[in-house]
Design goal:
Number of strands: 5
Radius of gyration: 24 Å
Number of helices: 27
Distance between the termini: 67 Å
Shape: globular
Helix content: 55-70%
Strand order of the largest sheet: 2-3-1-4-5
Length: 527
């Protein structure tokens, strides 16, 4: 290992293990080779055994976190990295890994603190600075993004994260020519990792769109998505593997076949004065509404996170789980309610005495679960012109998961939107939940009127403080892709973006047409 000759080290470690010698280092090395060959579950077994042998070994805890992160068990990965830095506060790799894992989980404050610690421990390394620059760009803090990126590039002119952050800052400064030049140079590098290549293509698409080169922009978005489809195909589209679309299909069939549920007994709400779920579909204006409501003195919200993870695991993983959910006793549901509120508290949110707003658009797919756990919760269903929604999803760079994989083709995004909207309508008919439909375009056109209607539904008085939502954005980092746009305040450019790409969207218009009409977005409709 000191040579360094990792390949030889792994061979020696595997030989020793075969002879019955057991040590955390040997198991860690075997896990390294297993991960290289894509055998993540087997690698995890080795690393768990290594931790059992030596629970305080920092490199083992760090390796365990990496393996868990690659298995998309992000919460457990974060816990492993936190255990590593607790054992050795000067172990910079674990601080860096904690930073990007926290970013993936949507906790941008923890990500920033962790990366700053990694940078302090390794002042000559550009990687933490590059990630910090990217975080600043996600907050639309362009001064910090440019400063951090410049420091990283001074150390390593080829640093990818810094190059991307600098290009984003150029675009924000209305210098698309500079941004395009940076991105073209980046894309010309054959060694560029797939995810970085996709980010560069996607950002190039934004730059070309800002330069009024819509056809070229659409091609760049397609190139980004093609890279991601190839990179994640084994994980989300392998033969015989259930996809998010498959899950949506059996979930819809079950709810459709179920009788209308009677109103359940109201549940307590973790000390909150009320409980609201803001759902719909990604890129439907939910971030704008959430930030406006978050500025209300009687409401509290948090950044997008999977607070229902424990109950999803036990009640929404398989079609047979839904029958269990239908018949489970109220007493058996209490631990899941408690787990939900623990996760909310873990996001450093105090809901006591406030209306708690949980914003996660694809919680639409969890409405049957929400109806059992929190039957007294109120549901805000967010709408936006379906053409703008699907276009925006297609051109966006999301943190990848099974649902986001569906958005990597235009046809797939339209089909997934169609399926989620169908489920939403069926849930509205079948489930005993209070629903309010909110349209993004109405909020942009008449902020006071649309936000007052939402407040009336929630049961709080309208507050003029909601108009100042953009001024409060700095109080909480947001991991959502919409954060930089929302930081600008109210603007109308997000309405009707699809018109610039009308020819490119033609193949999906028949899929979206029923929703365009139903939701009142057809030409000549009364809004």
């Amino acid at each position: 290992m000191r040579a360094p000759d990792l390949e030889r080290a792994v061979t020696l470690a595997e030989a020793a293990l075969a002879e019955g010698v057991e040590h955390s280092l040997l198991l860690n090395l075997r896990a390294y080779r297993l991960e290289l060959h894509g055998h993540l579950p087997e690698a995890l077994v080795s690393l768990e055994r290594a931790r059992a042998i030596d629970p305080t070994d920092t490199p083992t805890l760090n390796a365990l976190g990496l393996c868990l992160a690659r298995l998309e068990r992000t919460d457990e990965a974060i816990a492993a990295f936190e255990a590593a830095v607790a054992e050795d506060p000067n172990f910079a790799p674990a601080w860096f890994n904690l930073g990007w894992a926290a970013e993936a989980a949507g906790d941008l404050d923890k990500a920033r603190i962790s990366l700053e610690r990694a940078e302090a421990l390794t002042p000559g390394q550009p990687a933490p600075l590059g990630r910090l620059a990217q975080l600043a760009a996600r907050r639309a803090d362009w001064t910090a993004a440019r400063a951090q990126a410049a420091r990283a590039l001074a150390i390593d002119p080829a640093q990818v994260d810094a190059s991307l952050a600098m290009a984003a800052a150029d675009l924000a400064a209305k210098a698309p020519g500079l941004a395009e030049g940076r991105l073209r140079l980046l894309l010309a590098r054959p060694e560029l990792a797939a995810t970085d290549r996709a980010l560069a293509y996607g950002l190039l698409g934004d730059v070309l769109d800002a330069s009024d080169r819509a056809r070229e922009a659409f091609a760049a978005f397609g190139a980004a998505n093609a890279v991601l489809r190839d990179a994640y195909a084994d994980r989300y589209a392998a033969p015989g593997q259930e996809t998010a679309a498959d899950q949506l299909a059996w979930l819809t069939r079950h709810v459709q076949a179920s009788p209308r549920r009677a109103v359940s007994t109201a549940t307590t709400s973790g000390g909150a004065a009320g409980h609201v779920f803001l759902v719909g579909f990604p890129r439907s204006g939910t971030t704008l509404l959430e930030r406006a409501l978050a500025a209300h003195p009687d409401l509290v919200s948090w950044d997008e996170q999977e607070s229902l993870a424990d109950s999803v695991r036990d009640f929404l993983e398989d079609p047979s789980d839904l029958d269990v959910l239908e018949n489970v006793s109220e007493a058996s549901l209490e631990p899941y309610r408690a787990a939900y509120w623990r996760r909310v508290a873990g996001a450093r949110v105090d809901v006591r005495g406030k209306v708690a707003l949980d914003k996660l658009p694809l919680n639409t797919m969890k409405l049957p679960l929400i109806a059992r756990l929190f039957p007294d919760a109120k549901i805000i269903f967010a709408l936006r012109d379906p053409r703008d929604v699907v276009l925006s999803c297609y051109r966006q760079r999301f943190q990848m998961n099974a649902s986001m994989y569906e958005l990597l083709t235009l046809e797939g995004a339209a089909r997934f939107y169609d399926g989620v909207m169908q489920l939403g309508l069926i849930c509205r008919e079948k489930l005993p939940l209070a629903f309010h439909t909110h349209r993004y375009e109405d909020l942009v056109a008449d902020f006071d009127g649309a936000s007052e209607a939402v407040c009336r539904f929630i049961g709080v008085p309208w507050s003029a403080e909601m108009r100042e939502f953009a001024a409060t954005l700095g109080e909480r980092a947001s991991a959502t892709p919409s954060a930089p746009q929302v930081a600008r305040g109210l603007y109308s450019e997000g309405v009707g973006q699809w018109r610039r790409f009308e020819d490119d969207l033609e193949p999906i218009m028949s899929t979206l047409a029923p929703w365009i009409t139903l939701f009142g977005y057809a030409e000549g409709s009364l809004h």
